[in-house]
Amino acid sequence: MAALKPGVIALFDVDGTLTAPRKVATPELLQFIQDLRKIVTVGVVGGSDLSKISEQLGQTVTHDYDFVFSENGLVAHKQGKLIGTQSLKSFVGDEQLKEFINFTLHYIADLDIPIKRGTFIEFRSGMLNVSPIGRNCSQEERDEFEKYDKVQNIRSKMVSILREKFAHLNFTFSIGGQISFDVFPQGWDKTYCLRYLDGFHEIHFFGDKTYKGGNDHEIYESEQTIGHTVTSPEDTMKQCQSLFLES
């Protein structure tokens, strides 16, 4: 195996990049990551909180990757240790958050979609996750909503209305996964994690939602990164094999 390449990091999105959406990573993928770590530094940046990322990548995720950035990097771990957190509540304030949450819940209540479940708004450290169907839906219901949303544009229409209504809050709205979108202050997208990577001269980012409006777009387009669009965990491994393991 070649020697570690100093100053080079491979940074990965989770859903659609290292795993199928909300599914557990395969043993093949997990082993591939450990092999890759022998060559370059490896990090993961996901919109979900650490508990959800751990469900997908393993309970030892903060030790299995050199960097783990949950909630877009608003909660940051390096070599198993917490190195930074950011608070949406402190930044925005309860009064403005309450106004946003009340309006959003009213909107969802009036939304006519085939099914609704529970947990329509999930409050995280650095963001809100909004789901028109509710995060308590089954995997089958997730898959059905994703198909429905591609035709009816439920999430994109909702984002347009919220963006206009709450323009004064300077929120960014980012559609990701199958059933939800994230809401956070401007600049708190996945590029937030880059502040912890000053020591790297080559940052490769791999993600599946790199298009405008997708939750990988800003970091993919960043001048600080070399962006790679992937279509599946298998494609991620193939691209990394070619870039890092065969060179």
From TrEMBL:
Q: What class of enzyme is it?
A: isomerase
Q: Which SUPFAM superfamilies match?
A: HAD-like
* GO molecular function annotation: metal ion binding; phosphomannomutase activity
Q: Quote any Pfam family the record assigns.
A: PMM
Keywords (alphabetical) are: Cytoplasm, Isomerase, Magnesium, Metal-binding
**What pathway, per the record?**
Nucleotide-sugar biosynthesis; GDP-alpha-D-mannose biosynthesis; alpha-D-mannose 1-phosphate from D-fructose 6-phosphate: step 2/2
Q: Which domain of life is it from?
A: Eukaryota
Per UniProt, alpha-D-mannose 1-phosphate binds at 22, 124, 135, 142, 180, 182
Q: How does it assemble?
A: Homodimer.
The name this protein carries in UniProt is Phosphomannomutase
Query: Which source organism?
Result: Cicer arietinum
Name of the gene this protein is made from: LOC101496067
